[in-house]
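Sequence in, structure out. Go.
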Amino acid sequence: MKLICVLLALFACSYCLDDDDYVVTKEYVDYLKRHVDWEVEEYENNIFRGWTIGEVQSFLGLVDMDTELENALRIEEIEGDRPLPSEISWAESKCLHAVKNQGACGACWAFAAANMLSDRCCLMSSDKGWLSVQELVDCDTKSFGCSGGSLTTPVAYIQSVGGLVKESCYPYAGRAKGCPSNCNDGKRFSTSHVCKCQSVANCVGTTGIRNCLNSGPVPIGFSVTQSFMSYKSGIFKCESTSYLGGHATLVMGYSASPECNYYSQNSWGTAWGQRGFFNIACSTCNISGGPVCTRVTD
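Output:
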């Protein structure tokens, strides 16, 4: 049987799993219930029941990229010594956009970036609409579409083209299609971009992520372990083995109680986790923050 090892420079993943094994079994769920302190989804209700390790790995789309684009970004320094509040939350904001489902396409990186810009554009300007994930999948040539991308390259793309088109212009398809010339309504694609990213900050480390959260949601990348597929609620922590790959989500807030944890929006639909959201401990799963747009204009 084919073995898949995920070796990501960002995430030090080194545990090999057989890609024909099921990612969720009744025995594994029972084991987790005895050994973790977060709530485990029942086997019968798990949306990944019947999925193999290989099928899950195929849509964990966060990959390591060259650092050239990161170095080229206009990076704003984040002060790490100012007092931080014990809690920040954008989850109840009027700008919170609904949970979506990436399907079998490894576009988590594109969802994290597009949703970050959508939410921050709403917070900082008059635009409150969805921005196109599909544009990043098809037009960001430094990424690999449904085969993966990084936290950095989509923000560099957004800066280079002056934002993103709206979802209504170019809806999500769950597959690569090729970068278009026109929107669905016939308008010219290249002149339909909104939400310009005027400045960027790199949210490095727990302090950097928390500081970036002061101005809006923050994309993060982290290592996914097999147990994550069985998460239901509580503060998730990775076990030390069974790494499957890299994943990107959008952090909506953090709390210092009962321990430092991030509240994050996933892109697996509302049937997973806390209706598509989850809490994850700040110090687990090799969490890394990505760039954010600190000033967005229409």
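Check: The longest strand covers residues 243-255. Residues 3-297 form a domain with the Cathepsin B; Chain A fold (CATH 3.90.70.10).
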